[in-house]
């Protein structure tokens, strides 16, 4: 056994402590070198794959030149480390050998150090050899890159008349390409060629570069056959799609569950009605923009405090209908989810989507529409024909056309989108220019209807209004005092601890009730009375469906964006004559009474008449589950806003030899209007069917909406294209001393006092809405199905 003294043990410990960090350091250097080489060389080999990106070679060659310098510095550092270790060893040897009998310990001590220096020297040599090999590879790569750059440096902005905006877009890219990271994402690096490649392959402002044609992808195979939509028989998957995390979503899911059986029965009835008709399954994105945090989501916090629920009622019903019709749904309520589903590239939203839009249809609202425009770049213009905008109050064509709205003073914060007016889908059928989406009310079976009739309390009234602010209406004390003489008044006003002071003491306030308890209250009440606000909500229809009479105020003058703060800024000039125009115009007495609340005698007389009147529960078919399913099915099958139609031709002089083609319209037997000519051909794919068309001339100050309604019809803007011809004026015996094409939402029309006729220059401005004392308008009308005003008799 070898014995050592205390000094020897201390020296051994010092040696171990000294050498361990070197071992760790050397291992770290080796590992780092290996990783760095793999990364650098891997980048160089990947740079040879020219198809990866047109800008890869230049970027990675520059990185490789830096890598070569790093490798050399690592080699120099290892050589310097070896020299310092050698100096340290000689110094320690000269010190230790002066200690005589302890001389063996330095030899034992530096044997590991000698081995370590040999390893360091070997690593340094290997790194040096690798650096030389890398240098050779980099030189070859650099030569190839210079050849490619030589070709790239020859790029010039093409002068192609088919691409008139190319030069201007290149100029913009030179100055602004760093303003959005999305340009670098698509490979723009500041070179002229990268601008042209982007503007020709990602966007479409420049022609393709000839030398890029060699790498063009092969034509894609034809798409596979569409899957067929099949009616679903379970809503469980839809509840998962809706998601969680917001009170508004919880409310929507509760509503879907509550109406589930009615939805399923309605789906079975519609399936039988369609008799196995083939339907393509659509991929549909539903983005509820007003529930996103970016839009403020003011609705969710108010769900449990009496806030407005109409929008959430409608969205819940839209989701149920789309799902039961068998379409593939994706539901988003956040901007991040929207970007992910659309394929938005990283950046600030100036670039197109990374891939073709994967959705056939997108249902959203104005908030979602704005979010899509901000983040889809040029793709928004390309795909906006697939959007359907849920728009409570509607958007008239005059407000929708950006140029016209700006020139004529119709521009608002919510309009000017240049969509087809039928892409806006409303809660009620205010104007046929928009599509009527609607919602549903709960249907009663025969037993429930009989039970309601037997349990009605003839002297009970419920006030329409859950927020205390609604009860601040001036003058309410007068008509409530009259009502209190005849009926017990109930309220459902939200409060937390104290009774709202706005609610009179003689009103029995139940507080905010869950939906099923509110339904039970309506089933007992005789009267449901509105204070004039909120406008056009679902509650009056629910009350009428539960056997109540709805009493509402008549507005004189009518409320509109011209005289009322609530409508100011909304993209419509519609005049609202009562709190609920649909109930007034489409339902009416005995279910709906509209009176002047400022006339105490008229109000009291109406109360007495209502108490004597017996009414049954009533729900229009278009607000049943089956009616909504039928309507949405027809829209999805027939509405196509992506197929462009040519604008009306400008007027031109005709030679005597030229003859106009025979008109597709003919005078009706009683010579009062025009109808589709029996001899004219019919496009079997036209929707609505053209033989439902009737052409009537309005009176001055009458919109086409009112003109068609007076004849028991509804205005159909799709048919305007058949009227927008000079020959139609002649067929209606209208004298035209001159005929002009202009942009005006009232055209086609005639100014009879001066015999001037006007035709529409811009198809997006065809409008059923609007009137003027100067013009009589040509109005396209059609028939409609009983209880389903959105569809003609042969539209399903």
TrEMBL record:
Chain positions covered by the region annotation Disordered: 642-662
Pfam families membership: Glyco_transf_18
Membrane-traversing stretches: 21-41
Cellular compartments per GO CC: Golgi membrane
Entry's EC annotation: 2.4.1.155
Localization terms from the record: Golgi apparatus membrane
Record-given protein name: alpha-1,6-mannosyl-glycoprotein 6-beta-N-acetylglucosaminyltransferase
Record organism: Aythya fuligula (Tufted duck)
């Amino acid at each position: 056994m070898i014995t050592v003294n205390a000094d020897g043990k201390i020296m051994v410990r010092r040696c171990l402590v000294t050498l361990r960090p070197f071992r760790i350091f050397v291992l770290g250097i080796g590992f780092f070198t290996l990783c760095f080489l793999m990364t650098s060389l891997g980048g160089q080999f990947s740079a040879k794959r020219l198809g990866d990106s047109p800008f890869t070679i230049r970027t990675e060659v520059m990185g490789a030149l830096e890598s070569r310098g790093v490798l050399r510095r690592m080699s120099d550092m290892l050589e310097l480390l070896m020299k310092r270790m050698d100096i340290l060893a000689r110094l320690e040897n000269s010190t230790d050998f002066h200690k005589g009998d302890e001389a063996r310990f330095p030899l034992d001590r530096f044997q590991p150090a000698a081995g370590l220096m040999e390893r360091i020297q070997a690593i340094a040599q290997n790194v040096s050899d690798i650096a030389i090999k890398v240098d050779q590879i980099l030189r070859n790569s650099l030569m190839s890159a210079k050849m490619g750059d030589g070709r790239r440096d020859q790029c010039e902005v093409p002068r192609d008349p088919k691409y008139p905006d190319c030069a201007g877009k290149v100029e913009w890219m030179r100055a602004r390409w760093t303003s959005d990271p999305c340009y670098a994402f698509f490979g723009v690096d500041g070179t002229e060629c990268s601008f042209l490649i982007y503007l020709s392959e990602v966007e479409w402002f420049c022609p393709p570069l000839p030398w890029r044609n060699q790498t063009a992808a092969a034509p894609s195979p034809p798409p596979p056959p569409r899957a067929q939509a099949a009616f679903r028989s379970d809503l469980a998957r839809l509840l998962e799609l809706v998601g969680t995390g917001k009170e508004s979503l919880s409310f929507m899911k509760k509503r879907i569950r509550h109406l589930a059986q009615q939805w399923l029965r309605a789906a079975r009835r519609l399936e039988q009605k369609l008799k196995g008709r083939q339907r393509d399954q659509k991929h549909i994105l539903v983005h509820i923009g007003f529930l996103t945090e970016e839009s403020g989501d003011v609705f969710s916090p108010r769900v449990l405090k009496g806030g407005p629920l109409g929008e959430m009622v409608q969205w819940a019903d839209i989701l149920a209908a789309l799902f039961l019709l068998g379409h593939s749904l994706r539901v988003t309520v956040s901007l991040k989810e929207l970007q992910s589903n659309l394929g938005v590239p990283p950046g600030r939203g100036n670039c197109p989507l990374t891939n073709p839009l994967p959705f056939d249809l997108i249902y959203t609202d104005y908030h979602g529409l704005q979010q899509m425009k901000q983040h889809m770049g040029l793709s928004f213009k390309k795909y906006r024909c697939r959007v359907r905008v849920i728009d409570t109050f509607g958007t008239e064509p005059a407000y929708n056309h950006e140029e016209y709205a700006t020139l004529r003073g119709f521009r608002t914060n919510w309009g000017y989108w240049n969509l087809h007016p039928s892409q806006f889908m409303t809660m009620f059928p205010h104007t046929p220019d928009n599509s009527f989406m609607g919602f549903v009310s709960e249907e009663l079976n025969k037993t429930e209807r009989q039970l309601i009739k037997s349990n009605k309390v003839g002297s009970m009234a419920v006030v329409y209004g859950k927020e205390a602010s609604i009860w601040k209406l001036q003058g309410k004390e007068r008509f409530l005092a009259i009502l209190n003489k005849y009926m017990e008044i109930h309220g459902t006003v939200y409060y937390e601890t104290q009774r709202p002071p706005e609610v009179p003491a003689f009103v029995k306030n139940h507080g905010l009730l869950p939906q099923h308890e509110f339904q039970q209250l309506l089933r007992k009440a005789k009267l449901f009375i509105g204070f004039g606000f909120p406008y056009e909500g679902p509650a009056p229809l629910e009350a009428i469906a539960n056997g109540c009479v709805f009493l509402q105020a008549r507005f004189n003058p009518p409320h509109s964006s011209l005289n009322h703060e609530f409508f100011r800024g909304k993209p419509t000039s519609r005049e609202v004559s009562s709190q609920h125009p649909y109930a007034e115009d489409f339902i009416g007495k005995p279910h709906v009474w509209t009176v002047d609340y400022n006339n105490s005698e008229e109000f009291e007389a109406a109360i007495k008449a209502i108490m004597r009147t017996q009414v049954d529960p009533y729900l229009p078919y278009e607000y049943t589950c089956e009616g909504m399913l039928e309507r949405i099915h027809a829209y999805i099958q027939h509405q196509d806003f992506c197929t462009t139609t040519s604008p009306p031709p400008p007027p031109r002089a005709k030679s005597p030899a030229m003859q106009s083609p025979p008109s597709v319209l003919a005078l009706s037997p009683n010579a009062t209007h025009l109808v589709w000519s029996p001899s004219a051909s019919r496009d079997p794919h036209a929707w609505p069917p053209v033989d439902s068309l009737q052409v009537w001339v309005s009176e001055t100050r009458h919109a086409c909406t009112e003109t068609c309604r007076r004849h028991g019809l509804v205005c159909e803007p799709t048919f305007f294209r058949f009227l927008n011809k000079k020959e139609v004026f002649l067929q209606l015996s209208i004298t035209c001393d001159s005929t002009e094409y202009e942009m005006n939402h009232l055209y086609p029309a005639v100014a009879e006092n001066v015999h001037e006729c006007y035709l529409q220059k811009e198809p997006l401005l065809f409008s059923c809405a609007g009137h003027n004392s100067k013009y009589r308008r040509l109005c396209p009308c059609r028939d409609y199905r009983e209880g389903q005003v959105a569809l003609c008799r042969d539209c399903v």
